[in-house]
Amino acid sequence: MQPHKLFYSVSFLQFFMSEVTGTTLILFLLAKGLSLQSANFLLVVFFVSIFLFEIPTGAIADKYGRKISIVMGLCCFLVYSMLFVWADLMWLLVFAQVFGGLAICLQSGSLESWVVENSDKPMEVLFTTANSIQYILGFICGLLGAFLATFNYSLPWAASIVSIILCIFLCCFYMGEKNIPHRKASTTHIKTIIRESVRIGFENKSIWIVFIIGLFISFSNPAGNTFQQPRLVGLSEQGIWIMGLIKAGYSLCMTLGSYLVRKLGARYSDVHILMYACGMIGIWLILAGAFNTFYPVLLTFLIYEIGRGMYPVAKQIFLNKRISNEYRSTLLSLDSAISQLGMCIGLIVTGIVSRNFTNLASDQTPIQISWVLCGGIALIPIFLLLYVHRGSRKNSSWKEKATKQNV
Predict the structure, then answer these.
(1) How far apart are CA 260 and CA 303, in angstroms?
(2) I want to staple 357 with a disulfide (CB 3.0 to 4.6 A). Which of 17, 84, 212, 362 is the partner?
(3) Are 339 and 214 in contact, with CB atoms under 8 Å apart?
C-alpha cells in the first residue's frame, strides 16, 4: 500500500475510534451520574496525562521508529476504551483516562512524521486531504454515534473497539519505514533527543511562537468542545438524536475549513492563513456565546467550526516546514504537550465557571460566559503572528539591502 493511502486509512480509523464516542461523551458521563464539573475533571486527567507523556513518547518514536510507537499507542487506546465503557467507579475512569492520554501521546506526531518521511506527496496535499477525510468522517460519526447511543450509550464504544483492532492490523502488516537501520545503529540517547528538541524549539522564534499560539487556542477549545452537547441539545429541547445532525453539520463545516486552507495557500502566506483561522475561532465563539436561542447559536457555532477546521491544517503546514526529520516527532510532541497544558487550564477555568450546570434544564449563563471568555483568548494569537510576520519582513528587507550593497 502506498504511504499516503495508508496514512489516509489510518487517519480515518484513528478519527473514527475517537469521534464515534465523542458525539455523546459528555452525555454518557452525565448518564453515569457525573456532574459537568466532574466530567471536566476527567478530561483534565486525560490532558495532564498527555502533557506528561508527550515529549518522552515523541523521543521514543525518533529513537526506535514511528511504527512501533503508533502500534503501542493503538494498544493503549484499546485498553482505555474497554475500561471506560465498563467502569462506573471514578478511580477506574481516572485510570482509563491515563491510558487514553498515553495512547494519544504514542500516536501523536508519529503518524505525521512517518508520512512526511515516507511519502513523496507535498505536505499541503497530505494534511489537507487527511483533515478533509476526517471531517467528512465526522459527519458519519455524528449520525452513527447519536443513533447507537439512543439504544445504549455503550454501543458507540463497541464500534470504536472494532476500528482500533482493524487499525492495529493495518499498521502491523502494511506500514513500512525508512531509516530503521540508522536509528538502531545511532548512539544518541533519548535524553539527548529531548534536550536538543527543546533547545531547537525555543531557539527558533517561529517555532516557539507557534507553541504559544497552541497554548491559547487549546485554552479556548474546551468550552466549545465540552459544552456543545448540553448547550445545543438543551436549547433545541429535542432528544439526543439532534446532536447527531449537529455533529454532521459541523463536520462538514470543518471540512470546508480544511479546503479553504488549500485554496488560500495559493494566494496567502502560511502566517496569514494561521491568523485567519485564529480570527474565525475567536470571533464566532464569542458570538455563539452572546446569543441564547437555538438557531442563532447553531449558526454562529457552525461558522466557528469552519475556523476550527482551518486551524490544525494551517498549523501543521507552518510547523512542519520549519523542523527537520531528525527531531520531528519530538518537536511535534513538544508542541502537543504545550497545547495540552492550555487545554488543562481551559478545562479547569471553564469547569469552575460552569460548576452549577448539572443537567440539560440548567441555566445556560455559565456556558455563555465560558464561550465568550474563550473566544477572547483565541484572538490573542493574531497579535503574536503579526509580530512574527513583521519581524520576518524586516529581516527580508535587511537581507535585500545587504545584497544590493554587496553588488
Answers:
(1) 13
(2) 362
(3) yes
Cβ pair 112, 4 in contact under 8 A: no
What's the start-to-end Cα distance of the chain, in Å?
52
Q: Residue 178, exposed/middle/buried by CB under 10 A (0-12, 13-18, 19+)?
A: middle
Q: Cα–Cα distance between 272 and 315 in angstroms, integer?
A: 11
Cα distance between residue 99 and residue 163, in whole Å: 18
* Residues 6+ positions from 81 with CB-CB distance below 8 Å: 17, 21, 157, 160, 161, 164
DSSP class of residue 73? H
d(CA 242, CA 253): 17
Rg, the chain, Cα only: 21
Is the CB of residue 7 less than 8 Å from the CB of residue 111? yes
Helices within 23-154 (DSSP H only):
25-31, 36-64, 66-86, 90-107, 110-118, 123-151
228, 39 Cβ separation under 8 angstroms: no
- Burial track 53-66 (b if 16+ CB lie within 10 A, e otherwise): bbbbbbbbbbbebb
Residues 217-254 pLDDT 10s? 989 887 787 788 788 888 887 777 787 788 778 778 88
Q: In this structure, are residues 37 and 90 in contact, taking their beta carbons and an 8 Å threshold?
A: no
Contact predicate 243/142, CB 8 Å: yes
Give the span between the Cα atoms of 113 and 104, in whole angstroms: 15
The H or E element spanning position 272 is helix 270-290
Q: How many CB atoms lie within 10 A of CB 159?
A: 16
257 has pLDDT over 80: yes
Instruction: Report yes or no: 328 and 62 within 8 Å, Cβ to Cβ.
Output: yes
Say yes or no to pLDDT of 339 above 50.
yes
For the segment 46-57, the average pLDDT, to the nearest whole number, is 78
Between CA 140 and CA 247 the distance in angstroms is: 9
DSSP letters along 342-358, please? HHHHHHHHHHHHTTT--
Question: What is the DSSP code (8-state) at residue 235?
Answer: H
